[in-house]
Design a protein that fits this description.
The protein is mainly α. It has helices at 5-20, 22-34, 40-49, 60-86; strands at residues 51-52, 57-58.
Length: 87
């Protein structure tokens, strides 16, 4: 790793972490918008798994979206680590 590699690697970790945490940020946004912090765990569960404990329903689209965001976060981390080795 050269002069800029460690910073590229750090940037990749931060950006990937934000992608992985995006469903959690959406759950926080739902809690703020609905002004109901007691329902935050159910919002978080819904955003990551697609299961809504309040209505006991399952949304496969939400699960696929969360899985894609988490996979994209790990892929970005790995991609930036490969790029960082070159610089």
């Amino acid at each position: 790793m050269g002069k800029y590699g460690k910073w590229l690697n750090l940037a990749g970790k931060i950006f990937g972490g934000l992608l992985i945490g995006a469903p959690a940020l959406e759950a926080v946004n739902d809690s703020i918008y609905n002004n109901n912090w007691l329902a935050f765990p159910s919002y978080l569960t819904y955003r990551y798994s697609g299961y809504n404990p309040t209505t006991r329903t399952f949304d496969s689209n939400a699960l696929i979206a969360a899985a894609a965001e988490v996979a994209a976060g790990f892929a970005v981390m790995k991609l930036f680590s490969y790029i960082a080795r070159r610089f």
